[in-house]
Amino acid sequence: MTHTTTSSLVASLERVSLAAGIAVIVVGCAVLVGWTLDIAFLKSILPVWLTMKANTALAFMLAGVSLLLLRMRQAGWLNIRVGQACAMLVVGLGAITLCEYVFDLDLYIDQMLFRDNHVTTGTYHPGRMAPQTALIFLLFGVALLLLRTETRPGGHRPTQYLALLVALLSLNVLLGYDYGVGMLPGLFFYAQIELHTTLSFIVLSLGLFLAYPDRGLMKVVVSDNAGGVMARRLLIPAIVIPALLGGMSIAGERAGLYDTTFSGATFVVADVVFFLVLIWRSAGLLYRTDMERQRTEDALRKAHDEFEARVGERTVELSKVNTEMREQIDERERMEVTLRASERRFKRIVEANIIGLIFADLQGNITGANDEFLRIAGYTREELIGGKAGWADMTPPEYRYRDDQAVKELLTTGVSKPFEKEHIRKDGSRVPTLVGIAFLEGSRKEVVAFILDITERKRAEEEVRRLNEDLEKKVTERTAQLQTANKELEAFSYSVSHDLRAPLRAIDGFSRILIEENLSQLDAEGQRVLGKVCRNTQQMGQLIDDLLDFSRLSRKEFEHHDVDMTSLAMSIAEDVKSGEPERPVAVNVGELPSARADHAMIRQVFVNLISNACKFTRQQAAPVIEINSYTDNGENVYYVRDNGAGFDMRYANKLFGVFQRLHSAKDYEGTGVGLANVQRIIHRHGGRVWAEGKAGAGATFYFTLPQNGKEL
Amino acid sequence: MIKNSPDEAQILLVEDNEDDEELTLRALTKINLNKTLHVARDGAEALDYVFATGAYSRQNVGGNLKLIMLDLKLPKVDGLEVLRRIKDDDRTKTIPVVMLTSSKEEPDIAASYKLGANSYIVKPVDFEGFIKTVSELGIYWLALNQPPR
Question: Which of A489, A490, A501 is the best mutation test for B, with the most CBs of B within 10 A?
Fold first, then answer.
């Protein structure tokens, strides 16, 4: 059962209603024509039949017109008014005629159109329609007036009930004709209604009943559901079958085929059989339909359940998706916040204008620049972005290769390390810059370049260079001065060594000659004094020698040898010992690591230290000198230890000073230059020298030297 | 002051210091070599004596010299120049030249040997040492040493 079936059914029924309206108008018109032209056929169809009265025909026409107008769903205001006026006229005709019958009056409407000469059976008034007809028209008029009315609750249409009532009354009359009886018992007025009038009533009532076939009672009939099906299946047979069976039974009875009892029984049985079959089939149909419906319902429920489940699942999914989306939105918002912060930072970097910044492509076409770059380049932003000056235009030819190198580096690593170049400003002047270039993120075309103005730095560098030059010049001058001074000092030393000695030698020599050759002429005092002269002369000679040694040390060129310290110490110890063969000095030389040093100078160090040790153990009955070494912190420390006079540590700082002596010349001869020489030599080697001792308990002299194999 | 005839001298002492001259003489006297000594007071005189020029033009070049004791610091022509001239000349370069000087300076020593000095002696300051050194020198070069001629 589909909707289209319903709507097509409704459309067909509407067409039936339309046809019914037209039919009664045609009938009305035909009868009026018959009256006008006095054509009996048109008035009564069969001569035996009563004529249809003119008023009846008029009422049919009015009713038909009213039906046609009022049944239109989208009827205009005028249509409705005209339709309702026609209906009122019908009501009026019916009502006046009834009044005439009830109050036995003649209101002169019966023959207002035509004069009725016919003598009609059952009526005493010429041209007046039968009272039943008047009543029915009255009902029709009311039904027409109510045609568009529908009760609010229930959706009942009063017209349909009235039409049904009229149709039943008319059917009864019709059946009376059909069954050949003038009048059914108890209904007095049937005989007075003409057959064509009755048929027209039925047609008109059908038209009214079906005027709105989808409303009121008809709603059930045209509906898609089981009720509609049953109604459509049973309604027609319920009317037609009893009528046919009744007719047949009466006909058979009349023909004398069977008696009344038989016909009644037969009629009932036939009726029962027909309806049994009909109901049975309908019930079967309903059963199947219902089963189908149940199955459909089950399927539907199942589908619904599935749908529900899927909706549930979907809801869960959706809420999950929703949560995810919420998270994504939150994430997006956080990112946006970060992005905004990042943008602010970026803006700050660009607009801080501490360093020049441009955006450009690899060909050097500038797409953006900050104020600092504009200051450096001297162009306006419009000139740069407008392509008036590109990177290449601002680069002096001699710096092009640097740009090329930078681009090469950029293409391999994405970044070029800062390099120095110069920029040609708009006014043609040049500005030294430090430039670094990097690809913008994710781009192999667009770059950002950082340009730092290094004018100040260059100026400072120039200043430093100039100062250095000055300094170098000064150093050269000073060196020359020093060399001169050195030469003078050499000359002085030479003079000292040469010229100071000669007079000394003369003093000493002639004093000796005096002692040797003229001793007898001198008294004891004279001889003692002369002796002092000689000793002082020798002392002075020694002083001059030591002083010369000392001054020579600072001038002497350095020579580096791998010095075998052990054998050097041993040979010197032997020399020193042989100087005083009568003394039992024990010298123990350990395994000394060799050193990278000037052999002659180290020799002098050992000579000084060992002879000192020898000298200061003179009071010791069993003098022992130990020469050894140890390693401390990667340094070779050599030492010479004796068990002699020692010294007071309070004066240790004086030990290495020139002409500084801790002992009297009477006890231990010496000029006080030896240890000064030792210190000077060790210092010149980059080593350190120090001493430890205790008065009367010996002394130890330490010195360090670079290890063999290491350059000084 | 003892002066020998130029041709007899076997030792030439080049010395500007009179004291040193006297002390040297004393030392040589002790070993009886004082008779064969000639003293030149400066470098120019020494060269004249050796090459028989100037005041000494009468004698032969190189004379009879068996030893020249040469000081470094001399008036007019200094000791190293004198040494160079003697050692540069084929006639004189075989004469032993002993540098007798107060200088202990390494450059002096090196320069002297480079120019062909036969020995380098630093004059001791003390008298005994001086006497001993000069006597030994005299004995060595005049008695022990065998010259080429």
Answer: A501
Q: What amino acid occupies position B14?
A: V
What percent of chain B has a predicted confidence (pLDDT) above 90?
21
* Residue of A166, A165, A148 whose CA lies nearest to A157: A148
> Under DSSP, is residue A446 helix (H, G, I), strand (E, B) or coil?
strand
Q: Assess A262–B contact: CB distance below 8 Å, yes or no.
A: no
Q: Which of B19, B26, B105 lies closest to A497 in CB terms?
A: B105
Which residues is A449 bridged to in the sheet?
A: A358, A437
CA distance A409 to A392: 18
Query: What DSSP character marks residue A594?
Result: P
Nearest to B69 by CA among B30, B105, B33: B33
Angle at A344 between CA A339 and CA A348, to 5 degrees: 145
- With CB atoms and an 8 Å threshold, state whether B126 touches A508: yes
Nearest chain B alpha carbon to A538: B126
CB A54 within 8 A of CB A36: no
Nearest to B23 among A509, A538, A556 (CB): A509
**A681 within 8 A of A563, measured Cβ to Cβ:** no
Contact across the interface for A497 and B26, Cβ inside 8 Å: no
Tell me the pLDDT tens digit for each residue of A400-422.
Answer: 998 888 888 888 888 888 999 99
Q: Could you list the beta-strand ranges (E) of chain B.
A: 11-14, 37-40, 67-70, 97-101, 119-122
Question: Is the sign of the CA dihedral A598, A604, A606, A608 positive or negative?
Answer: negative
Whether the pLDDT of residue A515 is over 60: the answer is yes
pLDDT category at A554 given cuts 50, 70, 90 is low
- The per-residue DSSP string of B102-117 comes to S---HHHHHHHHHTT-
Interface of B with A in 81-100 (CB under 8 A): none
Categorize the per-residue pLDDT at B124 as very low, low, confident or very high, splitting at 50, 70 and 90. Answer: confident
Please give the span between the terminal C-alpha atoms of chain A, in angstroms, as a whole number. Answer: 119
For chain A, say whether B103 makes contact (Cβ under 8 Å). yes
Contact A380, A373 (CB under 8 A): no
Q: Does residue A492 sit at the B interface (CB-CB below 8 Å)?
A: no
Residues of A in contact with B102 (CB under 8 A): 497-499, 501-502, 505
Residue A246, exposed/middle/buried by CB under 10 A (0-12, 13-18, 19+)?
A: middle
Token couple for A137: 């028209």
pTM (2 d.p.): 0.38
Could you tell me where the beta strands, DSSP code E, fall in A466-584? Answer: 561-563
Reading the block at residue A290, the tokens are: 């219902």
In terms of phi and psi (left: phi > 0; alpha: psi -120 to 50; beta: otherwise), the region of A174 is alpha
Query: Which residues are bridge partners to A636 per DSSP?
Result: A631, A705
CA B64, B68, B73, B78 torsion-angle sign: positive
The residues near A30 (Cβ < 8 Å, ≥ 6 apart) are A42, A57
A-chain residue closest to B20, CA distance: A506
What is the CA angle A71-A76-A78, rounded to 5? 100
Name the least confident of A32-36, A622-626, B134-138: A32-36
> Searching chain B, which residue's CA lies closest to the CA of residue A536?
B126
Cβ-defined contact of A556 to B19 (cutoff 8 Å): no
* Lowest-confidence segment of A551-560, B15-24, B25-34, B70-79 by average pLDDT: A551-560
**H helices within chain B, ranges in order?**
18-30, 43-51, 79-88, 106-114, 127-138
Please give the structure tokens belonging to residue A691.
């001493």
Binning chain A into helix, strand and coil, the percentages to the nearest 5 are: 65, 10, 25
A contacts of B101 (beta carbons < 8 Å) = 498
Residue matched to tokens 């019930």: A283
Residues B103 and B139: beta-carbon distance below 8 Å: no
Helices then strands, counting H and E runs in chain B, come out as: 5, 5
Instruction: Compute and round to an integer the Cα radius of gyration of chain B.
Output: 14
